[in-house]
Amino acid sequence: xxxxxxxxxxxxxxxxxxxxxxxxxxxxxxxxxxxxxxxxxxxxxxxxxxxxxxxxxxxxxxxxxxxxxxxxxxxxxxxxxxxxxxxxxxxxxxxxxxxxxxxxxxxxxxxxxxxxxxxxxxxxxxxxxxxxxxxxxxxxxxxxxxxxxxxxxxxxxxxxxxxxxxxxxxxxxxxxxxxxxxxxxxxxxxxxxxxxxxxxxxxxxxxxxxxxxxxxxxxxxxxxxxxxxxxxxxxxxxxxxxxxxxxxxxxxxxxxxxxxxxxxxxxxxxxxxxxxxxx
Length: 279
What we know:
Radius of gyration: 19 Å
Distance between the termini: 30 Å
Shape: globular
Number of helices: 10
CATH topology of the largest domain: Rossmann fold
Order of helices and strands: HEEEHEEEHHHHEHEHEEHH
Number of domains: 2
Strand order of the largest sheet: 6-7-8-3-9-10
CATH superfamily of the largest domain: P-loop containing nucleotide triphosphate hydrolases
CATH architecture of the largest domain: 3-Layer(aba) Sandwich
Structural class: alpha/beta
CATH class of the largest domain: Alpha Beta
């Protein structure tokens, strides 16, 4: 398929694209090693470089334990790499940055705050007036189908509803770039598909730059414009695939698309070698 390229075949294509689209985030020569409690050293990332275009949706996929989440945490400023740097609009990322939104797999809602107050939390921290933050929160609550649950507490919500609240809380502060670390991992497949539909609709509306970590290849192809394959540890960028599926997309329909099926087979043949190595 002409529209799909491995990273070593795409340098000329990337140069042409970069003239049209701004590079929002640049990862340059990242190396990172962890030291365990018993003193053993484990190299997680080896000379990783990656450019993320503005308004792009990039999925990072690789075998379990390969360093996907470590790379995401370095990108977001939560971890300082041993070597290399991350640039956001050509400015080095150093520590937590309010231009960045982050959604993890963990349930991070505050149990003593109701839905609307959880959604408005970041705005409250930024000293946005109560009237304005409630207006923003209500608009997002309505957008993801949670109208009527504004005064409900997290323990009264289903797992999928809690994830929706977490997602719109992240979006409420209007970050320039959104990092998502397997946000729907623990959910059942039906709930996950409904949330993926929410992601697609919200992205179509606001075109945020998104970096999305997942071990689910189908999810990556469904959501992203590019799928980046990471090798088994110590991880490097093995391949970088364009996803030439038209937008807007429907989660329920796209997986029956012949192009989707062909892409999934092609990328899986590349990925399974790394899964075997890690296993």
